[in-house]
Amino acid sequence: MQQSSHLPKILPPSPPAPLPPSRGWLGFWFALAAPPRPEEELTSALQREELRKAELTSIFLLAFALVGTLGLPVVFLNLPQSVIPSAVVGYLVFYVLVVLIAWLNRRGAIRTAASLLVTVLMVAIALRTTPLFGSDQQTAQFLLPDYDSFAFGILLSTLILPRRFIVPFAVLALGYVIVDFLAFPHCTNGVCLQTSNSDSFSILFHAGLLLLTLAIGGWLVSRSVEQTVIRADRAEELVAAERRIADQTRLLSEQKTRLEAGIAQILETHRRVAAGDFSACAPLQEDNELWQIGRSLNILLARYATLAQESQEMAQTSAEIDQIAGAVEHARYTQHLQLPACHTPLAQRLMFALGAG
Fold it and tell me: Per-residue pLDDT averaged across 164-168, rounded?
């Protein structure tokens, strides 16, 4: 006998409601620079957080591209003629990097794309403070507060990168600030800043303190967010497990009801057979767990009913033959054969042999 295939099964967790697709120009940009949203909704909060960071990376990439494009007239009008070719090359590299980051993000290399975006921002800030664009190869003193702009890179890394990337970017930014401050002269109108002066080091201290504070704060915030996402993911798993248990309990209850109904039908069939009703059968369908038992019982009852019918026919045949034998024996004395009416095939055949057919 085959095992019943109607045992309750552990149901998979029901997925949360699908994320609505983005529409408009933002949806068009996501279609170019963000991973495609899966047709089947992500069941893990960690996966949804990864997708959120990828879409946030594409938004920041679009913002940088727009700012860079809108700033083209300002940059080229204020630059000396001697460095315009370098600026053109720089912009070409910038747009190539924008396309590369969008391609990587779209392909699913989310962390690589985010790291490259933060690197581009850091390099752009570094180029702002470097003497590369100065006519006298010197950094003007009024550009020194731009060291604080590295804070935007750290904040960006906090938003789109895992927390382990935050401190390395902060260390790189701080290292650049120290090297640029100590290695290059900082002059305005021919007056140079004395980097050995304690007051001058306050600029360096301020920038370093700001970057380290933001790095530590960003790391702590990112850690808190990641732990919250992990807890949310575990909570969703717990809810899914509770849902599976509830479904399992419901299936067991339905199975118990079907078993009780099937047992009652089989018992009723036994009572009818015991009372002599051999036409009784167990009315079980294949969706019932006991249908194979009921099927075997019905086959047994059908065979038993056939044997009972054959036994009844045999008894009737025997009675009719006895009647024919009595009539034949009576005819010996009366010389007149009066055969009784017979209905069974064997008795009718015997009567035909005796000439009564």
Answer: 89
